[in-house]
């Protein structure tokens, strides 16, 4: 078992004291409940703005530069309540009110709409073969959608209470909700991981070296370091929704929901790592 997995399966792990985050910049302005940050291959940053779940057509996507300056406040407009996003090649997937909206990237032209068999679709991950995985928060499940459009419940049952964040790393799918789960896509086995104090999980990202980043809803950034340490990066204005991680920029990007900002945190070496 790797050092990271040993750490994540130690359920009684003590919660460390927070460390002040190294904030690089804070973007503000016309955001409207920013929910997700998706770093793109050209080092731009795409932000989904929910802007009220009960106001169809009010949601939008904002494009920022790597320095936090706005390129286009409404690169995609008139969405309902955009939440999770993922990019596969030149196909941009956006979860919007139980639909999967697929856009051509970087033109941002709508290609297709997938009606999802979900109660409250939230976040999305896309596999290399084109299969998508969508968390259903109210349905407490993950829906698997094949490239041919066939939909099924992952593992065959609803077992992810409050399913929210999701991240795919090879054949391992991480699902966050009231707890953190690890799904082996080879045999559909599910393991509850993470210490007991790690709850209500939204953002999940993996650093190239193997450090796992987690953001609880309205919480700080938690890093489970590949070397065996745990650190919590916190500070004024850091109250996260579904964060993103831009490895090329060395930044964790924190959307703050009702606070209406995006906070960029510089990511350096991790505790216990070489």
3D architecture notes:
- The protein is mostly beta strands and 274 residues long.
- It has a single domain, classed as TolB, C-terminal domain (Neuraminidase), CATH 2.120.10.30.
- Helix content is 2%, strand content 49%.
- The protein has 1 helix and 25 strands.
- The protein has a 5-stranded mixed beta sheet.
- The longest helix is centred in the first third of the chain and has 6 residues, at 3-8.
- The protein is globular, with a radius of gyration of 17 Å.
- It starts with a helix and ends in an 8-residue tail after the last strand.
Essential attributes:
2% helix, 1 helix, 274 residues, 25 strands, four-stranded antiparallel sheet, five-stranded mixed sheet, mainly beta, Neuraminidase, globular
Helical fraction: under 10%
Radius of gyration from the alpha-carbon trace, in angstroms: 17 Å
As a percent range, the share of strand residues is over 45%
The CATH class designation is: Mainly Beta
Short précis:
This protein is mostly beta strands.
Secondary structure topology:
Blueprint: H1 3-8, E1 19-20, E2 23-28, E3 34-39, E4 45-49, E5 59-64, E6 70-79, E7 82-88, E8 91-96, E9 99-104, E10 109-115, E11 121-126, E12 132-136, E13 141-145, E14 151-153, E15 166-169, E16 172-176, E17 180-184, E18 189-193, E19 201-206, E20 212-216, E21 221-224, E22 230-234, E23 244-246, E24 251-255, E25 261-266
Parallel strand pairs: 1-22
Antiparallel strand pairs: 2-25, 3-4, 4-5, 5-6, 7-8, 8-9, 9-10, 11-12, 12-13, 13-14, 15-16, 16-17, 17-18, 19-20, 20-21, 21-22, 23-24, 24-25
